[in-house]
Amino acid sequence: MVSGLEQAVKFTPPKREWKLKEVIIIGMLRGKWARGENNFGVEIRDAKLNLLYQYKGAASSYFVSNEPKEVFLEIPDIVMNGSFFICFDSEAVVSIFTETNYATGNSYYYDKQSGKLLQGEIPLKNNSTLPVNWVIRARGV
Predict the structure, then answer these.
(1) Total domains in the fold of the chain
(2) Deepest in the core among 11, 20, 50, 100, taking most CB within 10 A?
(3) Containing domain of residue 79, as a range?
(4) Tens digit of each residue's pLDDT (9 = 90 or more) over 41-73
């Protein structure tokens, strides 16, 4: 992961006044970082990319090395009336899982420096790219 880029997923709430309560991420610690207390962060941003909520934690307290783990982060209720983004910044410590089949177009890189979204994709050997879905989920009521 390039420094300053976060993996972001765009969500549309199923109804007005929907409350985001939990973020779910599937990932694992990268091998060389498995024993350190390196941080990861989660940000909730509105449709205009304004910051609504931010969380930082020690990656080794949530994720494990060489084994996928589903991490549940409870957050204070945030009422959503429009699209929003969940952004994940692993500081190169956590490999977040990706889905490569049936990409929805809702996964992005969020460039913190420019404040812009870039399409979520991974490079292939032949100078082409493959669209992906980052495995980040939103749970609410």
Answers:
(1) 1
(2) 20
(3) 5-140
(4) 999 999 999 999 999 998 888 998 888 999 999
